[in-house]
From TrEMBL:
It comes from Mesorhabditis spiculigera. It is found in: Membrane. This is Ion transport domain-containing protein. GO terms for molecular function: monoatomic ion channel activity. The keyword Transmembrane applies. One of its GO terms (cellular component) is transmembrane transporter complex. Its main location: membrane. Residues 136-216 form the Ion transport domain. The chain crosses the membrane at residues 65-86, 101-121, 181-206. Keywords: ANK repeat, Glycoprotein, Ion channel, Ion transport, Membrane, Repeat, Transmembrane, Transmembrane helix, Transport. Pfam families: Ion_trans. InterPro entries: Ion_trans_dom, TRP_cation_channel. It comes from the Eukaryota. Residues 337-382 are annotated as: Disordered.
Amino acid sequence: MIPAPFNVRYGNGTMMDLMDDANATCSSAQDFHNAYINLFKTIVMCLAGAQIVKEIYQFYTRRWAYLSLENLLEIFIYTAAIMTMYDFSPCSEHSAIRLNWQWMLATLGTFLAWINLLLLIRKLPRFGIFVLMFVDNRPEFSTIPMSIVKTLVMTIGEMEYNGIFHGTVDVHEESLFSKAIAFPVFFLFCVLMTILLMNLLVGLAVDDIKSVQEKAELKRLSMQVDLVLQVERSMSFWRKKFTRSRLSFYPNRITKWKRFRRLFGANQLDDYSDVYDQQAAEEESSGLKRELGMQRELINHLQTNVDYLYEKQVKFQDMLESIMEKLETISSDSRKMLANSSSAEAAQKLEKSSSAEAVPPASRDATHLLTTDQDFKMADDD
């Protein structure tokens, strides 16, 4: 089986370079070496080293809170960049050809760099909500059996497997080098693009993912707050040194730059824009004044109604007090009348008892007889 056309044979090992000649050697590959490649390699290694120093400083300031998937991913990407750019053999130094494992490491580092870019986009206000929805862990994918069943249900298409992993020409039957790294990357591409992303877009189209959007929005806000706190903690010294406690602003001051612009008439447009802004501000202020006048009239009307209700309440209270006074007067008079009537009855009883005691027994008998005769007569008349 003939290998892929970008192989270059060097010694006992096999190195790779993107060249058309399948039988090229390291000596012939030096003709393709560009003088700017060493400069670019130095720039990449310097930038990756600076990022690693930054990550070390973050670990020093944040301690164990630094250990997260995003930070570990960044460290791996920077390390992979340095390992890919470093020359491990004389052939790599003179021809910029990388070793086999360097190419695989560069492939994995590039893929993870794009994933890291997605993780960084999460903190942006416009695109962060979609990234958070994309990486959200759904309950139907919580276990491996459920994930397999859900993936089979969601999968409705097929990727062109033969066109990617098998060549279409007779000379080179294999168009793919390093299947160990190609198959996992292809599998992740199929899962991310054809399954998750397309179904996520369909869910957004039918407005069936409102709760996921709200959760992603809250997560994005929390990540923004965490980012601000990290920046404040990492740059505390610079903030204390360069923070200005007072800022003076003079909007009508004519600076030297404005005088220079006026010499060439460049401030005319600014003057027109200032006039337009002033007119817009006046219109807005007049509208606010009208609204304030309407609010003031409404408040006055409400105050009048409140005063009227207060007067009614005072009158009603006076009426109740007069009624209570009259009721108290009537009750006192009735008590006096009852007291007088009871005293009169007691006096009459005393008079009767005293008169009864003063009459002799004979007269009492006569009176009794007379009363009895009168009763008989009244009965006969009846």
